[in-house]
Design goal:
By secondary structure, the protein is mainly β. The protein is 5% helix and 60% strand. It is built from one helix and six strands, in the order ββββαββ. The protein has a four-stranded mixed β-sheet with strand order 2-3-5-6, with no helix packed on it. Strands 1-4 form a two-stranded antiparallel ribbon. β2 and β3 form a beta hairpin. It is elongated and about 45 Å long. The protein starts with 5 loop residues before the first strand and ends in a 7-residue tail after the last strand.
C-alpha cells in the first residue's frame, strides 16, 4: 500500500517455528529489497510468519524517490511492481 508519505508492504513466509527475525531494507536501483534473517532455536516444523515493512518518504535520499518495485530477500521471482511511485 502506497500513501503520499510512506509505503507499507506486508507479506507472509514460512520458516522454522522457533525462529525470531531481523529485518533490513536495501535499495537496488528502482527496487526495494526487503530482507529478513531468521535466528533462534530450531524446532520441529514450520510456521507461517507475517512480515510488515513501513518505509517513510525521505526527500534527502534520491533513490527512494524513484522506487517502482519491491522484492523479498533478493529473490527476483518475488519482484512486484508498487501501485504507484512513492513520490509523484
Amino acid at each position: 500500500m502506497l500513501e503520499e508519505n510512506h509505503c507499507l508492504i506486508t507479506f507472509s513466509a514460512p520458516s522454522n517455528c522457533g525462529y525470531s527475525f531481523l529485518g533490513e531494507i536495501e535499495i537496488v536501483d528502482d527496487t526495494l529489497n526487503l530482507i529478513y534473517h531468521g535466528y533462534g532455536t530450531t524446532c520441529f516444523g514450520n510456521c507461517l510468519f507475517s512480515f510488515q515493512y513501513e518505509i517513510q518518504k525521505d526527500i534527502m535520499n534520491e533513490n527512494i524517490l524513484n522506487l517502482r518495485y519491491f522484492m523479498i530477500n533478493g529473490d527476483l521471482s518475488t519482484k512486484t511492481e508498487l501501485s504507484k511511485k512513492l513520490v509523484d
